[in-house]
Design a protein that fits this description.
Helix content: 25-40%
Order of helices and strands: HHEEEEEHEEHE
Radius of gyration: 17 Å
Oligomer: single chain
Strand content: 25-35%
Number of domains: 2
Number of strands: 8
Length: about 140
């Protein structure tokens, strides 16, 4: 499913979009509703939400072994999330994608982070570097908004 963030923002507002996307970051600190442990936060433009940066990291799920490519397994990916990503960020979203790299189709995981920049920059670089080393990748694509 392709989501148009600007359209969603226009229709529902940022608070609803954050809930729709499954993000678990409080954007205003004001709990609007809490039911059975699920909290819904309301966006307040005078608070931190507009200062957040969205970073997406694209992780290819193939690695070269000799003359062929081997797929990084779900178990290996989950281990990477637990051992590396979760050390730096409590809340994040992961979704599956399919891309093309150098003319070949490749399954991909996209990690989306909402952060304040600054000290988080080193954490993001550490995650990308750890993935490159652990899975012998050429690189990790990063897009900031």
């Amino acid at each position: 499913m392709i989501l148009n963030y600007k359209r969603l923002l226009g229709l529902f507002g940022i608070g609803a979009v954050i809930v729709l996307l499954g993000l678990q970051v409080p954007v205003s600190g004001k709990v609007v509703e809490e039911t059975e442990g699920a909290r819904i936060f309301r966006y307040n433009p005078e608070m931190v939400a507009m200062d957040l940066i969205e970073t997406r990291l694209f992780f290819g799920l193939s690695r070269r072994e000799g003359d062929s490519f081997v797929v990084i397994t779900s178990e290996e990916w989950e281990s990477f999330l637990k051992d590396t990503v979760s050390l730096y960020f409590e809340s994040f979203t992961v979704y599956d994608a399919v891309g093309n790299f150098r003319g070949s189709r490749e399954d991909t995981k996209i990690l989306m982070l909402l952060h304040e920049g600054g000290a988080d920059e080193g954490k993001i670089r550490a995650i990308a570097t750890a993935y490159v080393k652990r899975f012998e990748q050429e690189g990790v694509l990063r897009i900031d908004r």
